[in-house]
Design a protein that fits this description.
Elements (H helix, E strand, L loop, with lengths): L2 H9 L3 E3 L1 H8 L3 H14 L2 E4 L8 E5 L3 H15 L2 H4 L9 H12 L3 E4 L3 E7 L14 H10 L4 E3 L5 E3 L2 E6 L3 E6 L13 H12 L13 E6 L2 E5 L7 H4 L9 E3 L2 E3 L4 E6 L3 E6 L12 E6 L19 E15 L11 H14 L10 E3 L26 E6 L3 H13 L4 E6 L1 H6 L1 H5 L3 E6 L5 H10 L5 H5 L3 H12 L5 H14 L3 E14 L2 E2 L15 E2 L5
Parallel strand pairs: 5-16, 19-20, 19-21
Antiparallel strand pairs: 1-3, 2-3, 4-5, 6-7, 8-9, 9-11, 10-11, 12-13, 14-15, 15-16, 17-21, 17-22, 18-22, 23-24
Helix pairs in contact: 2-3, 4-6
């Protein structure tokens, strides 16, 4: 099957045609087009008679219905081939009716498969960007990290510290001593040692995007087997919560591969399929599933978790999950721009507040937010009354692919108020990793998803190198001093500190809350123990399917 042949069938009926038009539609050169036409002619799909002489057009005559033939072939393949092989054909340029039929058929291949093993096949729209804990800057990748790797401790959303790889610990004002579990195995079969832990934490401590978080730490050493000491002479109130974060996952790198100790190990990882297999030697509770497969599907493919054995219509229930929030970040200390003027930022805040209710017209999952970004602390704040300033030059706005819908609302609002703008379109990777772009930009919409505990996540938002605020706030001495208060404030008091800092960011026009998002995931009623965990995603280690017993 060839998608180029399908495109030709769909958009060019039998009759007169120019090869230039075909080349443009197929996005190839005219020379390549001639080769393809000869190939398809020889295979019996069509006859193509080239025009002879100037002004004479060519003629195309179809001999077979391409879409019907291809559809039959894909349907047969879906019944006999692994889903990751047939999934790529959903990306073809089908007519709406054919694509709907194929997607309905394809959807029956997903869900729980109860054979000798329990396997959940999950549709995914994008490949995972990374499975390395230090590079997981997006929620999809970080959720995978949470399944494959363990931390030394875990932190609940209520702030309770729970043992993981460390079973106990002693805390003093200048030192944390961790006692590691015995006989914990990595996925390659090797046993966890204190040296493994130190190697991971040392890489993290000097990692470009995380070094500010770990600045209070002076030394990490081991003075006895399975004992790790973390020293912080100047104090570090949040050391235990810090060890619970995804970036603090413990791993082992060997022969170009990375191994964790988590409930699932990575059995396969390609652009089209990622397979997690249950790790039977896991030191905690073994996952109830044997495997989870993530298979790439088109963007419009419906995501439903259900049993592939259930061929007929099945009942589902919606699981609500927080999907983060969106804010406008303004580069308040960009001296060469008008955005450095507080009156300009206040005026922008004012007009956005007046039009915030229109965001759902652009981003359907967005719920306008005129309060705090932190759940449970959604305190209202005052909206400034500002006089329109004179805009002497365009404001530079960065638009990333993952915030494109909300950014259109922002741009349309500025157009409504005759505010001149210059737009820079960037990829997700550039928005995260290209710090120079942030320096050159006046403002942009940023989407954030908290990991689990929002007190720790908000501080991470203020300080980690993947987030935009550290680059902006780091230019201002007052803000540097303000954020340094976290180190010396007991973690139990961070909620109040976060509320105060957020209010200051809003009052100074640096961060303006715009919306928060909810995700509603449909699950079949036959799936048991659906729990939402890190970054608003389901905990795969707890899922199971109630068996059908006659």
């Amino acid at each position: 099957m060839d998608n180029k042949l399908l495109i030709l069938w769909r958009y060019f009926p039998s009759g007169h045609i120019r090869t230039e038009e075909i080349a443009e539609a197929l996005q190839i050169s005219q020379k390549q087009t001639a080769r393809y036409l000869k190939k398809w002619n020889d295979e019996g799909w069509l006859t193509f008679t080239p025009g002879r002489g100037r002004g004479n057009v060519s003629r195309l005559q179809w001999l077979k219905n391409i879409e019907e033939n291809f559809e039959d072939e894909v349907l047969l393949m879906l019944d006999h081939e692994p889903v990751e092989i047939s999934s790529k054909y959903l990306m073809y340029d089908w007519s709406t009716e054919t694509k709907l039929r194929l997607m309905n058929k394809f959807h029956t291949q997903f869900g729980f498969v109860q054979e000798a093993k329990d396997k959940l096949v999950v549709p995914k729209r994008y490949p995972f960007r990374t499975l390395h804990p230090l590079d997981a800057a997006d929620a999809h990748s970080a959720n995978m990290v949470s399944n494959v790797f363990n931390r030394l401790v875990s932190l609940t959303d209520q702030g309770e510290i729970i043992p993981e790889l460390a079973h106990s610990w002693d805390v003093s004002p200048t030192k944390l001593r961790l006692y590691l579990r015995k006989d914990v195995c990595f996925h390659d079969g090797s046993v966890l040692t204190a040296t493994d832990v130190i190697n991971c934490l040392e890489k993290l401590r000097f990692h470009e995007q995380n070094k500010d978080l770990w600045r209070p730490i002076d030394e990490i050493v081991s003075k006895a087997p399975l004992v790790v000491d973390i020293l912080y002479p100047s104090g570090c109130s949040y050391i235990l919560p810090l060890l619970s974060m995804m970036t603090s996952s413990i791993y082992k790198e060997s022969k170009g591969r990375i191994y964790g100790t988590g409930g699932f190990l990575v059995e396969e990882d390609t652009d089209h399929k990622t397979t997690l297999a249950a790790f039977k030697e896991h030191f905690q509770e073994r996952p109830l599933l044997d495997a989870v497969e993530f298979v790439k599907v088109p963007k419009d493919f419906p995501i439903v978790y259900h049993s592939s054995l259930e061929r007929d219509h099945h009942e589902t229930f919606q699981v609500e999950s927080d999907s983060g929030f969106g804010v406008l970040i303004m580069n308040a200390y960009r001296k060469e721009s008008q955005i450095a003027n507080l009156e300009v930022r206040q005026y922008i805040h004012q007009i956005l507040a007046e039009n915030r209710h229109r965001i759902p017209e652009y981003e359907s999952r967005a719920i306008p937010n005129n309060n705090s970004c932190m759940i449970g602390n959604r305190l209202p704040y005052s909206i400034p009354t500002a006089v329109r300033p004179e805009f002497t030059e365009p404001l530079i706005i960065r638009v990333a692919e993952h915030t494109e819908e909300a950014s259109r609302w922002l741009l349309d609002t500025f157009t409504q108020y005759d505010i001149p703008v210059q737009v820079i379109h960037v990829s997700f990777e550039d928005a995260i990793f290209n710090k120079q772009l942030t320096d050159q930009t006046d403002m942009f919409i940023h989407g954030e998803i908290f990991e689990l505990n929002q007190d720790l996540s908000f501080y991470f938002f203020l300080t980690n190198g993947f987030a935009p605020l550290p680059l902006i706030l780091g230019k201002n001495r007052k803000w540097q001093k303000r954020i340094s208060q976290y180190v010396h404030t007991p973690f139990e008091e961070w909620t109040n500190l976060n509320v105060e800092v957020e209010k200051e960011l809003i009052d100074e026009g640096i961060m303006i809350p715009l919306y928060y998002q909810k995700r509603y995931i449909p699950f079949s009623t036959e799936l048991m123990n659906v729990n939402i965990k890190h970054f608003g995603y389901v905990d795969f280690s707890k899922l199971w399917l109630r068996p059908t017993i006659d």
